[in-house]
Design brief:
With 390 residues, the protein is mainly beta. Helices cover 7% and strands 53% of the residues. The protein has a single domain, classed as Porin, CATH 2.40.160.100. The chain is built from 2 helices and 18 strands. It has an 18-stranded antiparallel barrel. The protein starts with a helix and ends with a strand. The relative contact order is 0.10.
Length: 390
């Protein structure tokens, strides 16, 4: 079924769109992104002394249309675990779904643009809103994004309906809606890579007690030797009072091409206090987790979807090294505790080797060790990933 859909999609593009280009003066291109990942299974359903591995495949194929002021983008995605029952591999019939991961239009007028449809969005360092590219499906939002640029930077204004209440009751006040204003201010006093990013983001929830606003500020200061990245975000609602704080200090040695950088940092996520009537746990529902908190999905932390959790106090040390011409090695050490440091979760070591084979093909190998404080054993996670982009 998947092969048939891809065949129809390619046939339509290759046969129809050349005529569009001639008749309607529309430029177009085709894109493809295929990713295979083999990883160890870290679920709690594994029998003692047993080994379990999983294979994931994500396939994306797209077409982009361009005119002078308007462009259209359509990206079809199929995500599946190889051998899963939903795939019906080797038998007739299949329940696996192929869907449009992104389908959107952009209208540009001088220094401003409107994007509307279904698309990815990553803000800042993706602590608050992320694409979640590690996930085999990823994340797309549906709605409108307005962007305006000037010599100081750019301003983003977005409106995303998350849950439409039409299935329960027709009342916009009962919808889940994510909206916000995000500024990117260039700090040219340092260099072109330094930036200041204030933002206001609002989540309207079907339950009023779970609605909140976020007021945040992210900074990125860079010199030839030193980099500083920090972020502070407050969540405030009728029943919510929480915050997230981050600080990372980086150093790049002179005249050492193989030594990309080394950073030391901390990530703080407030936890809930059961003795109060407020929810003090910070919700990272739309934010990245593996990007900042390591690769191992330990059961006692890493989620933070809601507000009822113990929070996180994390310290990390990361080194990036350029090995030969097309290889990058990341070595990261994480120490995890709960928000008030009363519970020690554990320590994690990440070793990730990335290789750019050519301009269209790359590979990634990850070796992860996690030492929980409450278990007398080291937990392992391994993965190997191949990605081709055309």
């Amino acid at each position: 079924m998947l092969i048939r859909k891809i065949f129809y999609f390619l046939t339509f593009n290759l046969m129809i769109f050349p005529y569009f280009e001639d008749v309607l003066c529309v430029d177009y291109n085709l894109t493809a992104d295929l990713r295979y990942r083999l990883k160890t299974d870290t679920s709690e359903d594994i029998e003692k002394d047993a080994f379990s591995s999983l294979s994931e495949m994500r396939s994306r194929i797209g077409i982009n249309l361009f005119t002078e002021n308007v462009s259209g983008h359509f990206i079809l995605q199929d995500s599946r675990m190889l051998g899963d029952l939903d795939n019906s591999s080797g038998v007739t019939g299949s329940t696996a779904k192929t869907f449009f991961h992104q389908t959107y239009f952009i209208y540009k007028n001088k220094n401003q643009s409107f994007k509307f449809g279904r698309f990815e969005l990553a803000l800042g360092n993706q602590r608050i809103i992320a694409k979640n590219n590690w996930n085999n499906i990823g994340r797309s939002f549906e709605g409108i994004l307005f962007k305006r640029e000037n010599r100081f930077g750019e301003r983003l204004l977005f409106y995303f309906p998350i849950v439409e209440s039409i299935e329960t009751e027709h009342d916009d006040r009962k919808d889940n809606i994510l909206s916000g204003l995000y500024w990117k201010v260039n700090l040219s006093i340092f260099n072109e890579k330094s930036i200041l990013e204030p933002y206001i983001i609002n989540l309207q929830h079907q339950e009023d007690s779970l609605s909140y606003s976020m007021y945040g500020l992210r900074t990125g200061l860079n010199t030839k030797l030193i980099s500083i990245e920090s972020e502070l975000t407050l969540q405030s609602g009728s029943s919510i009072s929480s915050y997230l704080a981050s600080f990372n200090l980086g150093y790049k040695p002179k005249n050492l091409e193989w030594f990309k950088n080394i950073t030391i940092g901390t990530e703080l996520i407030s936890g809930d206090d059961s003795k109060t009537n407020k929810l003090e746990g910070f919700s990272k529902y739309f934010g990245a987790r593996h990007k900042h908190h390591g690769y191992y999905d330990y059961k006692m932390h890493k989620k933070y979807f809601g507000h009822n959790h113990d929070g996180l106090m994390e310290f990390n040390l990361k080194g990036n090294f350029n090995l030969f011409e097309k290889n990058n090695l990341l070595i990261a050490i994480h120490n995890f505790n709960n928000y008030d440091n009363s519970i020690q979760y554990g320590n994690e070591l990440d070793i990730v080797l990335k290789r750019s084979i050519n301009k269209n093909l790359s590979s990634e190998l990850g070796i992860i060790f996690y030492q929980p404080e409450i278990e007398n054993k080291t937990l392992n996670f391994f993965y190997f990933m191949m990605t081709t982009t055309i």
